[in-house]
Amino acid sequence: MPAKAETSKLRAGLVQMRSGRDVARNLADASLLIREAAAGGASYVQTPEVTTLMELDRARLFVETRPEDGNPAIAHFRALARELGIWLHIGSMGVLVKPDKIANRALLIDPHGRIAARYDKIHMFDVQLPGGESYRESRNFEPGGTAVVAETPWGGLGLSICYDLRFPHLYRALAKGGARIIAIPSAFTIPTGEAHWHTLLRARAIETQCFVLAAAQGGKHENGRGTYGHSLVIAPWGEIVAEAGTDPCVLMADLDLSAVDEARKRVPSLEHDRPFELRHVPLLREGEPSS
């Protein structure tokens, strides 16, 4: 059973980045923004997808990626969370899990510097976009197979990453599994962001009746890739609470988790699932009687 939330009030800080090809520089950039969020009173701070490295070259990606055990970037973030006394959610970073595969892994670190939860991105972004952009995430990354809800002082936190956003059944499972907040750290492309980012995030909040927190990558990256930015905080009724632009920044928001209970009382859709069968009805040919 999910643990009872200790408090209903949360000041969250979302770190929007423009990660490049240098891990040390990305760590420094992320740390400055995390410190800014903590100085502003955030007790939960989220960074975007691929916080530590934005790299398209396969050979360089594998040279720069380490296993979790003994990983200096993870040690750095654990020490930072402990120093600042915050819940630090690294939206994702690459972790070597096989000689030829990396996990796109989220890490939730508690105020004592302990890793409270891990989540490996389930859905791989293998697409050919109009305009020539092509991504084959599955070439380098090993998909996860487990949905995760982590208990926090504010209730269940459902973990997901970027392309997961397009698979609503995952989010319903997280909500039914006790999530009251859903994290969707991302590095959306500009074309898909302009078309779908706001709509999909608002839909996930409305469907799950959760707060949605989505820290994003934004701008033109060192490797030539462009990302959409617009980190967002969305309330359970679907309204946008806070939004960033495209530049690196900290987006702050004060959340009252009682809004989750209010939304679920107004429309208790999470309680109304019913079993059903899917039936395919063929096209009637001319002269055939209807059933």
Helix-strand sequence: EHEHHEEEEEEEHEHEEEEEEH
The CATH homologous superfamily name equals: Carbon-nitrogen hydrolase
Specify the CATH architecture.
Answer: 4-Layer Sandwich
Task: Calculate the terminal CA-CA distance, rounded to whole Å.
Answer: 47 Å
What would CATH call the class? Alpha Beta
Give the strand tally.
Answer: 16
Could you please describe the fold and organization of this structure?
Helix content is 25%, strand content 29%. The protein contains 6 helices and 16 strands. The strands form 4 sheets. The chain has a 6-stranded mixed β-sheet, sandwiched between helices. Strands 8-9-10-11-14-15 form a 6-stranded mixed β-sheet, with helices on one face. Strand 6 (126-128) and strand 7 form a beta hairpin. Helix 1 packs parallel to helix 3. The longest helix has 19 residues, at 190-208. The N and C termini lie far apart (47 Å). The model has no long low-confidence stretch (mean pLDDT 95).
Compile the SSE list and pairings.
Layout (H helix, E strand, L loop, with lengths): L8 E8 L6 H17 L4 E3 L11 H7 L7 H13 L2 E12 L2 E9 L5 E6 L5 E3 L5 E3 L11 E5 L2 E5 L8 H9 L2 E5 L6 H19 L2 E4 L3 E3 L5 E3 L3 E3 L5 E4 L5 E8 L1 H9 L25
Parallel strand pairs: 1-2, 2-3, 9-10, 10-11
Antiparallel strand pairs: 1-16, 3-4, 4-5, 6-7, 8-9, 11-14, 12-13, 14-15
